Amino acid sequence: MPTCPLCNGVTVASRESISVERVIKMYKKLLGIDVAGEFGELSFIDCNRCNDCDLIYFSPAVSGSEHFYEMLQTFNWYYMAEKNEYEFARNFVKPTDDVLEIGSGKGAFAKLINGRSYLGLEFSQEAQRLAAENGVKVFNESIQHHCITNAQTYDVVCSFQVLEHVADIRTFIKSAIVCLKDSGLLILSTPSSDSFSASVSNFILDMPPHHITRWSDASYKNLANIFNLELVELWHEPLQHIHREFYAQTMLTKWVMKLLRQKTSVWNDSITYRLISLACRLPSKLLSKFFLGCLFMPRGISATAIFRKNTEVWGIK
Ligand SMILES: [Zn+2]
User: What residues are neighbours of ligand 1 (ion), with CB under 5 Å?
Assistant: First the structure.
C-alpha cells in the first residue's frame, strides 16, 4: 500500500496505473532520450491522488538520476533564466534579509533580489560553475545536511520548481523550516495541478523520472497545516506566452473528448485520443493566435506559495 509522501495517508481518491514501457517509448519519440535505466525492473507506476491532503504522487517514487538531468540539460529550454515566480517572490525579500535558495541553478534569482546575503544550494556542477561566473555564492549540499549547522539562520528560504522532483518531501520541508528564523518566510513554487497542465495526457515531463508529485492549492493548504505554518499567499502565474498554443490544444482536446464521452486520463495513447488531438492542432493554433489573451487570460502552469514560520507552534503533525 503506497503512503502519501506529504501527510503519510494511505487512502487514495483516485489511482491510475501507467505502463513504464509506454513512458520510455514516449521519451524516445518526443525527446530522443533513453530513460529505461531510470525505472529498473518496474513495469508499472501508479499515479495516486491522496484522499487526505490532495497531493498527487507517483509510486514507486522514481526520481531521475544525474545522467537523466544531464540529458535534459542539453535542451536550451530546460533552464529558463526568467521565471514569473521570481518577479512575484522578490517582493517578499527585504534589504535586511538573509536568503537561502534550494536548487538555485545558475543563480538567476540571486541577481533579482536586494537582500543582505544570499546562498544557493545546487547539485548540478555546470550550474555551480555558471553561478560562480556570475559572482553568486553556491554550495554543493543538500538542505537536509545544510540545516544541521544552519538552524534559524535565514529570513527567507525559497525553492523554485524543485519540490515536485523531491522524493522525501517531509525531510526536505522540515529542513527548510529549521533553517528559518522566527517569522521567516518559506517560498515554494511548483507546477499547479489546478492549472491546465493537469488535463494534459501523456505529459512525460510531469511524471517520473522527472516529477514525482503534483501540487494543488488544497495540498499547499494542507502542507501549512501539517507543518504548523501560516499560509500567507498562494499565487498563480498568468498563462505564459509560450504556453498559449499548449493551453489551447489541451483545453480543446479535453472539450472534444468530453463531447464524445471519452475519459481524460494521465496516460492515454488510444487511437481515439490521438485522432482527436491531431484534429485539434490547427484550430488550437488559430485560437491561441487570435483569441487567447484578447478575450481572457487563463491561469498559467506555475503556482507559488508563501508560508510564515512561527517558532512557538511549528512542528510536524
Ligand atoms: Zn496526503
Answer: 4, 6-7, 9, 50, 52-53, 55
Domain boundary among the residues 70, 93, 113 is at 70
Same domain (yes/no): 106, 224 = yes
Separation of 170 CA from ligand 1 center, angstroms?
Answer: 11
- Structure confidence by residue, pLDDT tens digits, 41-95: 999 999 999 999 999 999 999 999 988 988 888 887 776 666 889 999 999 999 9
Whole-angstrom CA distances from 78 to 31, 71, 73, 87, 268 are 12, 10, 6, 19, 25
| C-alpha count within 13 angstroms, C-beta hemisphere, residue 213 | 25
* Total number of domains constituting the chain: 3
Beta bridge partners, 236, equal: 303
Is residue 313 packed enough to be buried (19+ CB in 10 Å), middle (13-18) or exposed (0-12)?
exposed
Give the burial class of 221: count Cβ atoms within 10 A of its Cβ; 0-12 exposed, 13-18 middle, 19 or more buried: middle
Q: Name the one residue in this structure whose C-alpha cell is 493551453.
A: 247
